[in-house]
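Sample 3 of the quickstart, ligand 6-O-phosphono-beta-D-glucopyranose:
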Amino acid sequence: MLEITTAWSTAEIYLFGAHVTNFKKHDEAPMLFLSQCSRFDSINPIRGGVPVIFPWFGPREGLPAHGFARTKIWEVKEVTTAMDGSVTVRFRLPDSPEAGAYPPFIAEYIVTVNEHLTMELLVTNRSKDTNLEYEDCLHTYFFVEDIAAISIVGLKGVSYLDKVGGATQRTEGDGPIRISSEVDRVYLDTNHPTEIHDARLGRVIRVEKTNSASTVVWNPWINKAQQMPDFGNDEYQKMVCVESGNVGPNKIVLPPGKTSRLKVTLSSKIEN
Ligand code: BG6
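Result:
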């Protein structure tokens, strides 16, 4: 695990999954939620922080949910400190038998820690003649003081797949999103930034993204929390996932020789 301290913030990144588990600005509450029940057994994915979801999103018959990238030990290729004190770590996904089901590719992940947390997933198709099709998602779990006191803005009028109780296509209304039951939604064809307004902390977290057509909003709520072995029964009150990626109909079809870069920048400010 890498521990990073900058003039603005601290961060922790596990090589297992290239998984950011903590980002905290000095004098602010942690930005990311990490479950007290996460297993950290180097087998199961870490519950919380920012799982790197690649090369598929969601369940696949006979295969692990959300792809294999989040359960591989990534190689650290480079750690650099910029003139302004920003720290950047560059990881590379090691070869694995699972990757053999795809045309040859390189996946790199670049995390920059400063006043913000910036994460970039770069995928290069090394095949000479075959498209590389994949889904990706930076599955950010945000820490919130009280789920009942947050609202999410930035998804007004966007179509989404509602995955609670079967898959239904819906359209988001005009108002901010509030969460008072299980939410599992894949918003499609949206490049817009989103914000999480946390009235109890007086904090606004902003999620800015590039090359991401999908935003996923997830909170397991009471019943699902109880069914998850690596998640506390009451922890649904302290988190919300607002994830950035390219999933389902927004999957990436990458021509031979090309690179695709998913970039997400998280920032926050205290408003009162
Ligand atoms: C979300 C999915 O992104 O991740 C949910 O939309 C899923 O359906 C959740 O339950 C957590 O997935 P996992 O595999 O980490 O338990």
